[in-house]
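Q: Convert this sequence to structure tokens.
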Amino acid sequence: MEHCEHCEAHYKNTPRSEEQVRALVGRLNRIGGQIAGIRKMIEENRYCGEVLVQVSAVESAVRAFGYLVLEDHLATCVSERIRAGDADVVRETVELVKKLN
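A:
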């Protein structure tokens, strides 16, 4: 992965494994499929209740995806920064958790 001196903070120090990337991309693909399904339901003029059930499923899938990324963040980025003496990462992480809810 290419890095520039101005963007260094935007990349993980510990890269995700190929397995992690594959699993996360797979989840994103499924979420994309769910969204495409909702689009099709709207185009077909499907019953609002059925559409809302699918919207709820997508929200749940996105939230679960976010928690997986958060788990990785805590295990790698946050722990690395704490070991390096950067206590500000705790406040940053709390803000990230708030955004997930």
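The mean pLDDT is 92.
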